[in-house]
Amino acid sequence: MTTQPDRIIIFDTTLRDGEQSPGASLNGEEKLTIARQLARLGVDVIEAGFPYASPGDFEAVQKIAELVGVEGGPTICGLARATRADIEAAGKALKPAAKARIHTFIATSDIHLEYKLKKTRPEVVAIAEEMVAYAKSFVDDVEFSPEDAGRSDPEFLYEVLTKAIAAGATTINIPDTVGYTTPGEFGAIIRGIKENVPNIDDAIISVHGHNDLGLAVANFLEAVKNGARQLECTINGIGERAGNAALEELVMALHVRRQYFNPFLGRPVDSQESLTNIDTRQIYKTSRLVSNLTGMFVQPNKAIVGANAFAHESGIHQDGVLKHKQTYEIMDAQSIGLTDNQIVLGKLSGRHAFASRLKELGFDLSDTELNNAFLKFKTVADKKKEVTDWDLESIVNAEIQQPPEIFRLELVQVSCGDRARPTATVTLRTPTGEELTDAAIGTGPVDAVYKAINRVVNVPNQLIEFSVQSVTAGIDALGEVTIRLRHGDRIFSGHSANTDIIVASAHAYVNALNRLYAFLEKQQEATPEPATATL
Ligand code: KIV
Ligand code: ZN
To answer: Its catalytic activity (predicted)?
Structure first.
């Protein structure tokens, strides 16, 4: 019998399912940076990737297993389809982790069996059993998922789960793969499993769900009430299609409403003990890091981490909050780390003060990264009197996110105004070291800059998203620009921060083009064989 946890286990899949968001692809360094922050946030399990999918994914999982999966750190998990090759790759990649988990899955809904797998139910049961046992030969901790459980026949689900647990699965994960179920239905599925899978006490029940109908978080909370003890989620809810259940929403719902949830975990109503292991004060920082590195913008009205989540616009609300905070606030901005925004550095601050503040903020930079970030800080501090923690994070995130520098922006100059035709001149250093200058006219200054850059880089692409966000309030605030562009069926993102939003826009575009260029170069080098695996 597996000891059932007396709290909720948080399984983060930002680096696996989250990374499957169109255009969110991260390089190995970026994945490691996020994994380190997830460990600081206090997640129990990090699903670091899908090792069989590509050599890059394999290496990233291995690095995270080695550097983040240390003694006392989170469990590191790797995804594997129910095949020997996938499981073997996951087992190898996870080897360095102190606590390793293989997560293997096979679909159980009739529609997947008939059209995708072309297998019968008995065949699927046999594969699940055999592959769980195979995964067990690499690690003790094996998670099994019946994909599309939300649309599977419950009786068949009970049979597969019983066999998977008997073969050694320690966690059984119930995915609502297509985001189809409603909270009542999803809760009933979990209740049904608890009541009809005879060996269910030998495993922990987990849930995984997509947000196609905007119900993922609600479904999970209903699952908790019916016996689920592990929640699979992503930062900012990123993920395939409409995304996954958002970690910050689940954690804060369980935190703010713990009196409501306590009895479902067998606790006294008034217990103040936290229902998860998450350090909620790390939530905002983690959200910004993931948004910056993936290029996935957080909508302003997003619960918990959106720019407006704690803003009170109406006079009546402002008046109420000033009189008594709780009139219109159910949680404190500080509880997600939002108001630890001290002004710490300025123009006269030296390298030492800069480095030690970054250390306090949890950044662990190489000497080169630190030097580059310091130079950028000095430029910002020259233009901006007060440099806040958020500014520092923005500077460092932009530094960490640097894609391979193929083209380098040396100069950008614009002329615009209501009586002028927006015109831009840019100088770029090309991969051969040559400096090329070109100019263009556009519908606005950013359009002119992008047209001028295109004349130099000359790689066809379509700009599909452009957003500017200010890091802090004030006319001298740093502006963060995030862009996404499409080339064929691939999306590439770019990000940059500067007190001049035209300069930030130019850098963000060159960053995205460098990613695109690196991808094209890699494709040229690659053998004719296609990518090894996709989900
Ligand atoms: O959505 C899904 O079903 C998945 C599985 C691999 C768990 O991501
Ligand atoms: Zn999923």
So the answer is: 3-methyl-2-oxobutanoate + acetyl-CoA + H2O = (2S)-2-isopropylmalate + CoA + H(+); acetyl-CoA + 2-oxoglutarate + H2O = (2R)-homocitrate + CoA + H(+)
